[in-house]
């Protein structure tokens, strides 16, 4: 049995090798493209469900703005506003089928990236793999809705209880601190589901934990770091003009894709280690 120090050293060497061998920069660029194609259809579905849900558009945008760079957030708000202003009553009927199909492209691309990490071919029929991508997309929408509903109701319930004792301002400070932890837990659950179900490999749920933990921490840190850099140092509008916001959005999606794929590589490493030690 290898000690933990050797395992960590092997993990670092393998990841460095896999970054080049599996062309993670190129795969991340492809995944970022699919993320871009999936982002707005996914948001359209969520915004179309607004009349039936106990929250508002600002609640959804508030979740995203907590991590997205300001320029990217402005682009998202502008495009969603334009799309939703021209929506029709059929958007939630036949139109939603095409929207869900489009938004599942990102998940389908993740499945292919994870298969490459595990060095397996996609043997599942196209209907099955695409069906799984659509189901995972629905799962992400559901988790996203829960991620919005819980903070909204939690904040209101907390304010009501703490106001009875005159501690409303103290609660708000505590809530702002806890909101990041709540977001991290929800992200961890999303990543765990993806790493567990998406690869064409039979895995136990707990085998997805290392990659999910890495992706959660890595994505939060990189998103906040990019947001700080863009807001304070990187003036992309000067370099790229009117498309600066698009560049920032693509850069954010690219970094997110890289971290997600790297999390899959970490899980694949530990899966191989476990098999070799059996």
TrEMBL record:
<keyword id="KW-0812">Transmembrane</keyword>
<feature type="transmembrane region" description="Helical">
    <location>
        <begin position="174"/>
        <end position="197"/>
    </location>
</feature>
<feature type="transmembrane region" description="Helical">
    <location>
        <begin position="132"/>
        <end position="154"/>
    </location>
</feature>
<feature type="transmembrane region" description="Helical">
    <location>
        <begin position="242"/>
        <end position="264"/>
    </location>
</feature>
<dbReference type="GO" id="GO:0005886">
    <property type="term" value="C:plasma membrane"/>
</dbReference>
<keyword id="KW-1133">Transmembrane helix</keyword>
<dbReference type="InterPro" id="IPR017039">
    <property type="entry name" value="Virul_fac_BrkB"/>
</dbReference>
<keyword id="KW-0472">Membrane</keyword>
<keyword id="KW-1003">Cell membrane</keyword>
<feature type="transmembrane region" description="Helical">
    <location>
        <begin position="209"/>
        <end position="230"/>
    </location>
</feature>
<feature type="transmembrane region" description="Helical">
    <location>
        <begin position="31"/>
        <end position="53"/>
    </location>
</feature>
<feature type="transmembrane region" description="Helical">
    <location>
        <begin position="91"/>
        <end position="111"/>
    </location>
</feature>
<protein>
    <submittedName>
        <fullName>YihY/virulence factor BrkB family protein</fullName>
    </submittedName>
</protein>
<dbReference type="Pfam" id="PF03631">
    <property type="entry name" value="Virul_fac_BrkB"/>
</dbReference>
């Amino acid at each position: 049995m290898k000690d933990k120090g050797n395992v960590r050293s092997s993990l670092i060497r393998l990841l460095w090798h896999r970054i080049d061998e599996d062309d993670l920069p190129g795969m991340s660029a492809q995944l970022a493209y699919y993320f871009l194609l999936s982002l707005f259809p996914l948001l359209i579905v969520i915004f179309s469900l607004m009349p039936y849900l106990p929250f508002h558009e600002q609640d959804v945008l508030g979740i995203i703005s907590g991590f997205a760079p300001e320029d990217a957030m402005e682009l998202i708000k502008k495009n969603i506003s334009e799309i939703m202003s021209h929506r029709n009553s059929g958007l939630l009927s036949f139109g939603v089928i095409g929207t869900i199909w489009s938004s599942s492209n990102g998940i389908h691309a993740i499945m292919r990236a994870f298969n490459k990490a595990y060095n397996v071919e996609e043997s599942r029929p196209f209907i099955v793999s695409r069906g799984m991508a659509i189901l995972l997309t629905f799962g992400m929408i559901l988790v996203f809705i829960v991620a919005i509903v819980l903070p909204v109701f939690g904040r209101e319930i907390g304010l009501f209880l703490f106001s009875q004792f005159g501690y409303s301002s103290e609660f708000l400070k505590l809530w702002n601190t806890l909101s990041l932890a709540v977001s991290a837990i929800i992200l961890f659950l999303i990543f765990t589901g993806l790493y567990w179900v998406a690869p064409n490999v039979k895995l136990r749920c707990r085998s997805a934990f290392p990659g999910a933990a890495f992706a959660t921490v890595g994505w939060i840190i990189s998103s906040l770091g990019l947001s700080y850099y863009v807001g304070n140092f990187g003036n992309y509008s000067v370099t790229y003009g009117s498309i600066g916001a698009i560049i920032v959005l693509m850069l954010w999606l690219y970094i997110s894709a890289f971290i997600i794929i790297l999390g899959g590589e970490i899980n694949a490493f530990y899966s191989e280690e476990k098999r070799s030690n059996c």
